[in-house]
Amino acid sequence: MPKRIAIVEDEAELASLIDYNLSRQGYQVQILCGNRGTLKSLEQWKPDLILLDVMLPEMDGFELCRLIRQSAVLGRTPVLFLTARSDEVDRVLGLEIGGDDYMTKPFSPRELIARVKAHLRREDMDSEPVMLEIGPFRLDRNGRKVYVGERPLSLTSTEFNLLEFFLTHPGRAYSRDQLLEAVWGEQRFVTPRTVDVHVRRLREQIEEHPDAPRYLTTVRGYGYRFEDAV
Fold it and tell me: What are phi and psi of 219, to 5 degrees?
């Protein structure tokens, strides 16, 4: 079955251009204009990835992303922001509320396709039903779910990938650049600050005291280490 990609974009010309390029790659595409009914439409269609403009007519993309992350149907769907805003504060905000990626307009169709493929490839990497149990953590690679004890975590696609990397590489310190290479791979547009944002979000879910972490610790002046949870 072809992968489904939703384009939430009110600029008709840009949406058509993206639709054309994605359709040529064999993806099934739906264009939504970003009104109050967009969330319901997304939940009904169940896309594999969402391209989300920040500047929308009835609500901004950040608000819609928050609703997507709260949705039982769409909560783990990769979200790639498309925006004319280039300020770092906007990029960080987009990541903090659950976005997986951020592209600043104008961008080339080739770069967009490369990033879409990278996110979808990560979604497909762990197709075998494998359960990983380390200390209180239980990671279901097939369902892409993580539990601390019996408590399920609510993770974005990128947060899942990062936590999986830490769980499978305990005890060793990794620099931010090493984590970018291991988890984000080809997406070298991201910055070391991106790692900090995602680590903070993970700590809020896995640590009893996020400001004094037991598992995901900081290696001052270098990066992060996941302490042995066994």
Answer: -100, 100
Beta bridge partners, 102, equal 81
Q: What is the pLDDT of residues 149-175, one digit of tens each?
A: 999 999 988 999 999 999 988 889 999
Q: What is the pLDDT of residues 201-216, one digit of tens each?
A: 999 999 999 999 999 9
Count the Cβ atoms, other than its own, within 10 Å of residue 28.
Answer: 15
Residue 49: left (phi > 0), alpha (psi -120 to 50), or beta?
beta
Amino acid at 82: L
Give the list of residues 6+ apart from residue 66 with CB closer than 8 angstroms, or none.
97, 98
Cα 31 from chain centre:
20
| CA pair distance 207, 216, nearest whole angstrom | 8
Q: How far apart are CA 187 and CA 193, in angstroms?
A: 14
